Amino acid sequence: MHISLALFNYFFAKCQDLGFDTYEVLPDDTAPYPFVRVNQATLSGGSTKTGFDGEITINLDLFGTLDQKLELAEMQQKLEAVGLTGIWLSDTSLVAVVDDYQAVNLLDTSTTTPLNHINMSFKFKY
């Protein structure tokens, strides 16, 4: 399995294990809030003769209604605990250590009802 897919699957499964409604693409308007969208992991760098040397970035989007701000903050805290501890994926022998983490809180007005939107970005060195 490619390491970017393995990391995507890891975060997708962790979100579900935490009890979050989790999607790969944005769901339709009937989906209940809050939910998490796990975005595609992107890879840069790669392997050399003596090993692997690269970065892999994955973004998570958390969406909730304006009155779910506390619930979204709790979700963010739980997902930070998943991402900031380092990751070992046995099926790919990937050991990833977080190199950079950023979170941005946004007010999403693209829908008829404004939403809280948290974008979380984890960059790992491997």
Task: Compile the SSE list and pairings.
Blueprint: H1 3-17, E1 22-23, E2 35-38, E3 42-48, E4 51-65, H2 69-83, E5 87-89, E6 94-108, E7 115-125
Parallel strand pairs: 1-2
Antiparallel strand pairs: 2-4, 3-4, 4-7, 5-6, 6-7
InterPro entries: Viral_Tail_Comp_sf
Protein name: Phage tail protein
- N- and C-termini, Cα separation: 16 Å
Strand count, sense and barrel status of the largest sheet are:
7 strands, mixed
Mean pLDDT across the residues is 88
Radius of gyration, rounded?
A: 15 Å
CATH topology: STM4215-like
| SS strand fraction | over 45%
What class, by secondary structure content? alpha+beta
Give helix and strand order, one letter per element, not per position. HEEEEHEEE
What percent of residues adopt helix (DSSP H or I)?
10-25%
- Given the C-alpha coordinates, what overall shape results? elongated
* Tally of helical runs: 2
Number of individual domains: 1
* Number of beta strands: 7
Name of the level-1 CATH class: Alpha Beta
- Low-pLDDT residue intervals, each spanning 5 or more residues: none
Question: In the CATH classification, which architecture applies?
Answer: 2-Layer Sandwich
InterPro entries: Viral_Tail_Comp_sf
Protein name: Phage tail protein
